[in-house]
């Protein structure tokens, strides 16, 4: 389903980036950071910059010939970005929402760990396994 999953901190620094093809990781970093501009625009356009976040799912952020980029922002301004292949026409909007909800739930588990330092990148094995399952299509 997904070819890349990224978790971006509130200061727009990447906390976690995972790709199916490790050789394309730099390309996906670039695409994810380009999508962050659209995230900021959508947040300010919907009044979310003032703290009024009701809808966490931002929808399609960017579409290229090869990939579609979707976004999600938590109440604490942590951004999740999922990149899918454009050729995957069977992927519906509600399935992408479910992927983000699952990712948000697993992220909350990571942050609740008393040994996790919020300023460090995510290195949880359970989080990585869940992301790998999402990319393999096992929601």
Short note summarizing the structure:
This protein is an alpha+beta fold and 139 residues long.
Task: Explain how this protein is built.
The protein has helices at residues 25-45, 93-111, 125-136; strands spanning 2-8, 14-19, 57-63, 67-73, 79-85. The chain is globular and about 40 Å long. The longest helix is centred in the first third of the chain and has 21 residues, at 25-45. Strand 3 (57-63) and strand 4 form a beta hairpin. The relative contact order is 0.19. By secondary structure, it is of the alpha+beta class. It comes from Cloeon dipterum.
Q: How is the secondary structure organized here?
A:
Elements: E1 2-8, E2 14-19, H1 25-45, E3 57-63, E4 67-73, E5 79-85, H2 93-111, H3 125-136
Antiparallel strand pairs: 1-2, 1-5, 3-4, 4-5
Helix pairs in contact: 2-3
Protein name: Trafficking protein particle complex subunit 2-like protein
Keywords: ER-Golgi transport, Transport
Organism: Cloeon dipterum
Features:
37% helix, Beta-Lactamase, alpha+beta, 139 residues, five-stranded antiparallel β-sheet, 24% strand
Number of domains: 1
Q: Mean pLDDT, as a whole number?
A: 88
What is the count of DSSP helices, taking H or I runs of 4+ residues?
Answer: 3
* Helix/strand order: EEHEEEHH
Strand line-up of the largest beta sheet: 2-1-5-4-3
Structural class: alpha+beta
N→C terminal distance:
9 Å
| CATH class identity | Alpha Beta
Report the radius of gyration as a whole number of Å.
14 Å
Strand content: 15-25%
CATH topology description: Beta-Lactamase
CATH architecture: 2-Layer Sandwich
Level of helix content? 25-40%
Query: How many distinct beta strands?
Result: 5
Low-confidence stretches: none
Largest sheet: 5 strands, antiparallel
Principal-axis shape: globular
Main location: cytoplasm
InterPro entries: Longin-like_dom_sf (IPR011012), Sedlin (IPR006722), TRAPPC2L (IPR044760)
Keywords: ER-Golgi transport, Transport
Subcellular location: Cytoplasm, Perinuclear region
